[in-house]
Write a structure and sequence with these properties.
alpha+beta; six-stranded antiparallel sheet; five-stranded antiparallel sheet; 1 helix; 13 strands
Length: 174
């Protein structure tokens, strides 16, 4: 008679599988909130970078003296206006002291990213006149433009009045 050989099991026990599933569950519980925070930070940063790009475009058009295709005999510059507590802003040419209606371009950020100010944000970039840069005016007067994502994050963009220097900020936790 042959001796009895014990059965060799190849695989995992039910308990081992449960332990692995529990560990994966704990890891997922930590990862999901972190991903949510990452996504919010990315949304406010994306909105701010888009806004900065439009500011630089307005600045470039003003310094180059780029007029709208029609209805603008004297170009004063370009204005970017952010609507208070809104995710909407507009870039528009200023001709002969008035806003040029046909040149208005409206942009929107994610609905949760808004201008965090009591009044509209206005940045004017002026044309170069006979080689002299006329600069920029900014409202709010200190040139600090604050974007906000709910109650979680802010992003500061600074436009220096006079020189028109645009400085990017960083995402800040509230």
């Amino acid at each position: 008679m042959l001796p009895i050989q014990p059965l060799k099991s190849s695989g995992y026990t039910f308990i081992e599988l449960l332990v692995v599933i529990a560990i994966m569950g704990v890891i997922m519980m930590m990862a999901v909130p972190a991903y949510g925070r990452f996504q919010k930070r990315q949304l406010i940063e994306q909105g701010a970078k888009q806004f900065i790009t439009i500011l630089r475009m307005a600045q470039k058009k003003a310094s180059a003296g780029e007029k709208p295709s029609s209805g603008c005999s004297i170009l004063d510059g370009y204005r970017v206006t952010g609507v208070k507590n809104s995710n909407t802003y507009t870039m528009q040419a200023v001709c002969g002291g008035s806003l040029h209606a046909g040149s208005a371009q409206t942009y929107t950020m994610d609905p949760r990213v808004v201008f965090n100010h009591a009044s509209d944000v206005t940045v004017n970039f002026f044309v170069v006149n006979m080689g002299i840069v006329r600069g920029a005016t900014v409202s709010p007067i200190n040139g600090v433009i604050l974007l906000k994502f709910g109650t979680d994050y802010t992003y500061t963009v600074t436009v220096t009045p006079g020189s028109g220097l645009i400085k990017e900020g960083a995402v800040v936790d509230l």
